[in-house]
Design goal:
Helix content is about 85%, strand content about 0%. The chain is built from three helices and no strands. The longest helix has about 35 residues.
């Protein structure tokens, strides 16, 4: 399952980077104004941070699973706690970024009712 999730997240990251690149093109051709460019780019960058953290979370989960499956003399509570704390920090940061993104998107929709980002 993690393999398909990794591919999906990786694909979304590539798509988001492409959208940022398209913004640069649209700005250079005069299709959008600087304010729109800044707005869209900031939204996409927050979204990209979310995707990156979610992708990182998968690897931490895998490390935790491997560590838990070993259950040998090398398994320590400290290692386990460190990985669980990393997961908690990632989850907290993702939730924080999603809240920020939703707030900024709501504000953006007031200025640009036709905005479609994701």
């Amino acid at each position: 399952m993690n393999g398909s999730v990794k591919k999906k997240l990786s694909s979304k990251k590539v798509q988001t980077k492409r959208k940022i690149s398209n913004l640069n093109y649209d700005l250079s051709k005069g299709k959008i104004k600087q304010a729109e460019y800044d707005l869209y780019k900031s939204l996409f960058e927050v979204y990209l941070q979310i995707l990156t953290l979610q992708y990182t979370r998968i690897f931490v989960e895998e490390d935790l699973t491997v560590l838990s499956n070993q259950r040998s003399g090398t398994f320590t509570t400290t290692q386990h706690d460190t990985l669980v704390n990393k997961l908690d920090k990632i989850d907290y940061k993702v939730a924080e970024l999603k809240n920020t993104l939703n707030k900024n998107l709501a504000i953006a929709q007031n200025s640009y009712p036709n905005i479609r980002v994701f």
